Every structure is written in structure tokens, then in C-alpha cells.
Amino acid sequence: MIKLLSNQNFERLSRAESYYSKLKNIFSEHLTEVQLQEKISYIVLLQELLSEVEQLFSISKNDYSEETFHSNLNAFSLIVSKTLKYDFVVFGYRYENTLVDLTPFYKQVEINNSNVNDLKVINYQNSLVGRIIDEMDDPFIWTTENDGDIFNYDQFISKYRSFDIDRKTHKNIERFFSFLGKTKLTNLIICPISTIESQKHRPLGYFILANKQSPLSLPFEIELLRSLKNYLSQIFKNQTRIFTQDRDSNLISDIFKKHFINGIQDILRYVTSEFSFKYSSFWVPTLEEARKAFGLNKSYSDELDGRELTACNQYDFYLEKDCILGKVSAQELQPISSEINIYSLESPNSENTGFKCLDKELVADRIYFKPIYKYYNTEAEIIEDRLLGIFCFYQKSRDTLDESTLKRLNELFDELSFYIEHIIYDASFHSIKDLSRELLSIDITEIQNYYDRIAVTIRALMHAEETSIFFATQDNELYLRASTASEFRHVDKLSKEIIETYKKETFVNNSLSPIYKDDSSLTYRSYRDKVTYIIHDLHDPTLRTNCSFCESTLSYSTTIIVSPIIVDGRCVGVIRCVNKKHYGDAFLKTFTKFDKDILHLISSFISYQHLKIKTAENQQLFVEKLAHENKTPVQIIWSAIENIETKLSRLSYDKSLGIEKNFQNIIFATSVLNNNYTNLNTYLRSKEDKLNYTYEKVDLRSKIEEITTILQPYLEKESNKNIAISHNIHHMPKLRIDEVKMVQVIYNLLTNAVRYSDNSTTISTYYKSNQIVTIRGKQTECFEIKFCNFGIGVDKADVEKIFKEYYRGENAMSINPNGTGIGLHVAKTIVEGHGGLIQVTELNNPTTFSIFLPNELIIKQ
Amino acid sequence: MENKILLFDEEVLLSNEIREGFELQGAKLIPAYTYSEAIRLLKENKFDSILVDIVIPFNNEDKKVNPNLHNNMRTGIEFKKHVIQMIEKKEIDYNPRIFYFTAISDLPEGDSSGVTATIHKPKRPKQIFQQVMGS
């Protein structure tokens, strides 16, 4: 007994004399004195070891890393070796389906480093240790000492019947040991560290003891090992859980920090190696026409070679009804348990899954399906609509995942679903943000380019090769409104040959040559049915669609998404995206349900913009009509007044009644109305770049006189404001100008002059020929028409600004707060439209507005 | 010969005031309110001048007379073309001067070929009279 106790322990034991006698009482009935002493010495040893274990592993549980665990086990193996006097001690743990051997501690054994490295990771399934710890709960003990008193080989065999230690095994063990230490093996103990889970034995790790320096003393040795093993199993259980939790949470935090773009791929890589899957894939919901379908998003495998992987990945699309994924998404299968939302399918084949690769490329004994749902969801939603995708994990043969591993897998994906949703939606979210910013920044009066810009934005957003926008005519035909493609082509569906190529210009914005007229094309049906359609393989001859007219793309068009633009419940057109671009290691070649959601969002944006444009157009049309319609009543008034005047002149009436004055007022007032509308019309059309000039032969001099006559009542508007207009234009050649518009300019300048003139002053009009003026950087021979008045003048700071739209000088505001602020702007627009220049002097002596027009406008006599 | 003017404008009030103005000045102006009526009057009379509005609605009867009439409502331009064609085909044996009488300010240049002048609404009636009867 004493030989087995260290001095320290013996002292401890002697102090605890009561403990010793207690033990003596317990065992004395059954044991001899020698046995008792041996027993007690083992108990003391065990206590010593356990206290060491406790000390080693209890430190800082929180920041426990795999590394400290390793070094602690190494330290512990040293202690075990010393205390129990074994030459060889090694600890290892199970890391999913791999056994990790820690750097073993050897006493008096030389070993080269390469062997150590070879041993560090042992395939669980193929190793002897793996088999032992998988099948046994108790320590496996083997010895060459055939001393029946201590160890009976036959007894041992009968005890561990389940494990057949035949000659071959014997050889194996020897080889194993000689490989480790090149030493003769005298005895060997392989002790599993395991736990019981759902009444099943689950190995966590092991330790190997070999070549005890003294003869093995059973069964105390076994009892000691059992106790040690039980204690260690708790520590291993906690540790391995901490490791996996550590790794899982590292993955989760890294996905957002480092791997966002390839997030799905990295998740697959991690899970595949962590859980030792043969092949993993991620499928996302999509559509074929309007039927539910699944497209392969990403896949990963360590085991399959490149050719096999390509072969598996070629089956990248299934209609929902044709494969098991439909059943998973509809929750028709039974999940593993109420807590573990993973579906398991044993012996999968092409019959029971629909997966074609299971016939040849891939052999698996089991597939686990893990559906991922949107993190943010509402109760009202249908569960299938919340589906983000389904992960499929193909199990290697024979292996099954135990409950705690499945739990871990489930928890991992429940955590990841949040990130997966972000991976899928976030890029789109940013693009949508860009789109809305883009849409809001486009001036909707620039209707010409508006949809072109939108098409470019949608293309980027959808990762499409080309994008086109079609609008419907009144006859329910679709014409091309905008497209990013410069060419279109007609392709024979069967031969895939190009029949004809068209330039975009042939169709774009040409409602007179619509492309789709009540046909069976996907594009037209989307318009007619108000449904978003996706097709996966455009040229599949079994499709009833006739989509042979398509944007010219670098590759043949394979996939198309068409979404209706609905305004006020009425479909006004469709957006069509052709060919999904795929990045990096993704090979998803089809548009998905998410693309559909995004396109819906875009089309509702467009509907809103469309509505805005329509309203703007209608408003413009209304103002234009108003401007136009008002001219006829003014004409009627003017004609009626003149008729009354003529009729009155034939009657005798009191001339002092001043009826002429009333008529003049009416003519002036209606001329103001008329001019306001004309200004408005000119302003709106120039904003739209639609201002056309009709050049006619005009006697502008008489027009100026005519305006002066009409303005007569205005000059005397207020009794104290008696302004005159003097004509200093005695000769002016006939001009080729736009009569209505140039009259407008004169009207605006003259009324402006009257409005801001001092009382009892005179506005003078001049004509000067042969002036040289720089117009748009070019010396131009011009004639000048100018209007001079004495009044409030124009501030120096305002000289440029007064021609700006809606700008009104401060001094002008003080005199007349009402003016519209477009009169001078319109005058400038028109004069520049005639190739001329308008100017104002900054000094009020007098204030002079000058119109310079090129001599080319003069009609030579 | 008495001066005879055709005014083709669907605005009855306007036409009446213009007619009265011309008559007070001693000229004869016959208003037409529809396309077919205007064509009929062209055939029944000899006009020195024709005043035609541009935006004029038309009905099915008018479309029988001129199938080219279309929805942009620029009926006056079609009418002018029609009149020139009638002169060329000698369907009428006189050669009237044609004036547009319109509130539209930006007509494409090509549409004004064969037109003496465009009178822009609104215009002082005396000046309209001078321009139509004038030099």
C-alpha cells in the first residue's frame, strides 16, 4: 500500500485517521487487509488526481479556449503518468467525427515529430480507438502479463464480448502502440470518456494509458479509471460544448464582419466540415412562370471532386411539386422533434426526393433539411411565404447525428437565419435605397430620359444583364418605353438561331409600333394577368411562352422576370429583366422569389412616379389648354366691343359719357389676361424644351405702337401716375420673327417699365441698327430695340438675377408685391431663342432694357 | 365683285361676332361650323379668302368627306390641304387666299405652305379685317 502512496498522500491520510478507519469498516467484511490497503491507496490516488483535475480546469471557465484545454490536458497527462506510473499517457477528444489526439506525454520514449502530427487527428471511424470508445462504455484493458491472479484474459474477453479481440485486433493494438512509441507493449488501457444522452452512449473523448511500470492491479484499476472517467466526462462535455459554441459564434460574428458577400458559401463550408457532411446545398424559392419552384443558390463539398461537384450542381432547378423541397416548405414532413426543426430523410434516392443527382453522382444514406424562415415575420403571413430557403445536408454513410449535435445545428441556423435574411435582402435594401434616391432626384419634367435612367437603375439593382420597360397603348398593346439593351433579336426557340436583329431605336418610345399584341408571350401575359412571371430556361421547348423576341445579350437569354406596373388597379405596362448575373462562386442562374419581391417594390415606385408624371402632364396640358382656350374669349370680347363701337357710332349718343374709355379698359384688361396666359404657356414649354418658334414676316414697329395703344388705360391707371410712352422709332425694317412671342417680349418689357416708372415720366422706345455685340462668345452684327424709363431702377446686385424665373428684386417687391416673376424670364428665353441678347443697365439714368437681335432676322427689301 | 370670305371655326359666338364685324365694314363673311359644311360652302360659292381655325372637332359625317381627319384635331391643316387639292384637281374654279385664324402659337413650318398668313388669336378685329381684305 505504502509503495503506491506518495509521501504527501500518506501524510494526508494519516491525519485523516477517522476517514481511514471508516473506509476500513466499509470494506473489511469483504476484503483482505492487503486488498483493503490497495483499495484505500487507490482512493487516495484518485482524490489526488481529481483535485488536480479540478484545479486545472476550474480556472477561468469563461475565457476557456481550445488552446488552454489542450495544455491543461497535457499537464494532466503528466500528472497521471507520474501518479499512476504509466510510461505512456495520451488524452484525446472527439471533434464531431474526428478524434483529436493531444500531444502525448511520453516517458522514456523517443518519438519523432512527424509521427506525433500524424496522430493528432485520427479519423474516428477508421481508428481502433474510435471503434472502442464508440462501442464501449467501460475501459478497455489489455495486457500481456498472463498472471491469473491479477488479470484474467479470458474473464476480460467474456466481460467485453461485444468487442471481439481476436488475433487481428491483438496485432492491431501492437501495431498501434509500436507506431506510437516503437516500444514493446506490455499493457494498454483505452478508456472512453462518454456521456449518456437520450439513453444512448455518446463518446466525448478518451485517454490511453500504457506500460504501467508495476503489474496491473484489477479491479481497483478499473474502479479508479471509472471514477476518473466520470469526472472527466463532465469536464469534456462542458469543454466541447464551449468549443463548438465558440466556433459557432465566431462564424456568426464573422459572417457580418468579413464574409457578407460570400456569406452563404461560408456558412456551407463551415457546416460541411464541422458536421462532416458529404455535400451541402442551399436552395431558394423561385418561380417557373407562376408555378412555385426552387433554384440552387450555393453548394459545398470537401469530399466530391470537381467533376462530381459540377455534375451535382448541374441539377440546379426543380419545380416545387417535383421535389421533396416542396414538402419541406409546406411542412408536410415530420421534423425531428418539436424543438429541432430539421427534417431527416433516410436512404434518399431520386424517387423519394426528386433529386436527379442521387441516381449517379451522389450517394448518401441520409439527407437533413433545414428550412430557414424570415427573422422578421408577422403572424398573418403564410409560413411558405416566410421561407428564405432550405439547406440540404448529405450524410456520409453509416453516420447519424446524435441529438445534441442536431440541437446544435438547429440552434446555429436559428441564429444564422437573421444573417441569412440580411445577406439575401441587405444588398437589395441598399440598392432600393439608391433607387429611391435616384428616382426622387430625377426631375420628372425631364420625361424624355426619365425611364432610360430608371431602366439602368433597375438593371443594377436586379443584377440583370438587360432591363426594359414596356408601356401599354390605349389598344392594350405593349410598346418599348426604355431599355438598357441597344439591340433586340428574334431567336428561334428550338434551334436557338437568331432570325433577325433590330436596333433599339426601331421600337423605343414608338407607340405606333408595339411589340406585343395580345399574344402568349410571357411579357404580354404578365401585362394581361397582372402577375409577375419568371422563367428559368427561356428556350425550353416545353414552355408555352413565346419569348423569342428578346434583348440582345452576351450569352443566350436564359432567364427572364416580368413584372406588371399597376397604377390605380390598372396595369399600365411591365418591367422585364433578362439574365441574372451571378458573382463569385454562386451559380444561381435564375431570378428568385426575392427578385420578384424587389421588382414588385420597384414597380410600385414606378407606378407612383408614373402617377406623378401623369398628373404633371395633365397639369401641363391643362395649363396649355387654358392658355389656348382663353384666347378665343378674348377674341370674342374684342370683336364684340368693336362691333358695339361701330354700332354706337351710327347712333347719336352723348360722347361725354366716355364709353370709349370703358372699352379701352376692357381691351387692356383682357390683354393682360391674354399675356399672362401666354407667358405661362411659354414658360412651361421652355421648361420642357418644347418651345417652338414660327418665323413670320412681322412689322414689329406697328406691333409696338399697337401695344402702346392697348396699354393706354394702364398709363393713366392711377390719377397721380401719368406716364407717357414716346415713340422714337421712325423706321424699322420688317423682321422674320415669331410674332406672338416677340409681341409678348415687348408687352412684358413695356408693362414692366410702366409698373416701375416714377410719376409723370416718359418711357422712350428706340431702334438702333448695326451694333456689334458678343452673343454666346461670338461677335454678332445686331440691331437694338431699347426701352428707357426713369423709375426705381435695378440694383447692381440684381442685374443678372432679374431675368431668373420667379426672381423679383427687393425694390420691385416694395412697389408691387404681386407680379408673377416670370415676365422678364420669358422675355429673356424668347430673345435668346431668336439668337439675341437681353440686357439691363444698372444705373437709373435712365433704366434701359435692350434687346439685341441678329441682323439675319431683318428681311431685306 | 363682292368680297366673300369663308370662316371655318366651330365657335359659334366668335364666328358671329367676326361675321358682324366684317359685315359692318361692308364685306360678306359666311361662317361654317363643321368640316362637311365648309366643303359644301366652298363648292357652292366663290370665296376671295378663307379663314380657318386649326383645332376643330369633327364628326363621322366629316370623316366621310375627308378620311384623313385624325385625333390630333388639327382639322384646319387637313382642311387647307383639302382646299389646295380641290384647286389643283379643279374641283373649284377659283383660287382663294387662305389664312389660319388660330390661337396655336407654334405651328410646324411645313404646315403653313400655301397659307397667305397666320392670324393669331386674339387680334384687334380692325387689323384682322385689314389683313384679310388688304393689300
Please tell me about this protein's structure:
- The complex is a heterodimer of chains A (861) and B (135).
- Chain A is an alpha+beta fold.
- Chain A is 43% helix and 23% strand.
- Chain A contains 23 helices and 29 strands.
- In chain A, strands 1, 2, 3, 4, 5, 6 and 7 form a 7-stranded antiparallel sheet that branches. Chain A has a 6-stranded antiparallel sheet with strand order 10-9-8-13-12-11. In chain A, strands 18-15-14-22-21-19 form a 6-stranded antiparallel sheet, sandwiched between helices.
- In chain A, a hairpin with a 2-residue loop joins strand 21 and strand 22.
- In chain A, helix 3 packs antiparallel against helix 4 (66-84), helix 19 crosses helix 20 (700-715) and helix 19 (659-687) crosses helix 21 (739-755).
- Residues 1-11, 103-123, 146-153 and 156-168 of chain A have low confidence and may be disordered.
- By secondary structure, chain B is α/β, with parallel strands linked by helices.
- Chain B is 39% helix and 18% strand.
- Chain B contains 5 helices and 5 strands; from the N terminus they run E-H-E-H-E-H-H-E-E-H.
- Chain B has helices spanning 12-24, 35-44, 60-65, 75-88, 125-133, and strands spanning 4-8, 28-32, 49-52, 97-102, 117-120.
- In chain B, strands 2-1-3-4-5 form a 5-stranded parallel sheet, sandwiched between helices.
- Chain B is globular.
- Chains A and B meet through helix 18, helix 19 and helix 21 of A and helix 1, strand 5 and helix 5 of B.
